[in-house]
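Dear colleagues,

As part of the handover before I leave the project, I'm documenting each prediction I ran so the next person doesn't have to rerun anything. This entry is a single chain, and its sequence is reproduced below.
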Amino acid sequence: AAAVPDGRLAIFDYQQEMLTIARSRLRQRGLANFDCARGDGMALPYRSRSFDAVFLILVLGEIPDEVACLREVARVLKSGGQAAISESRTDADFHRVAAVRGLAEQAGLHFARRHGPPFNYTAVFTAPAS
């Protein structure tokens, strides 16, 4: 929220506890430009082409249909928007970058780059031009 003072941060999670923690931490920092929503990552409650960026942090392994989730990410991203997917070997549901790339490409996202070592990385993808 601090990084987008002229925008809004949308926090989305399946677990209400995670949303409560995020809301509390942001409010403690005096931030108010955010919304929290609870739901299923395979059916995002947002309009198509409404986001500049989407971040998924240690989440893919929690989703029953990973490609459906990534299709939703591609749907809500603006043309040329970016999806950053972070994975860490410390997570029991760790996905190697090649696996994430394959899933994202099935969903229509284009691989741009990877940051970090193979065991703790963020892979960045772009949404196709509409």
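The two ends are 27 Å apart (CA to CA). The chain has a mean pLDDT of 96.

All the best with the project,
I.
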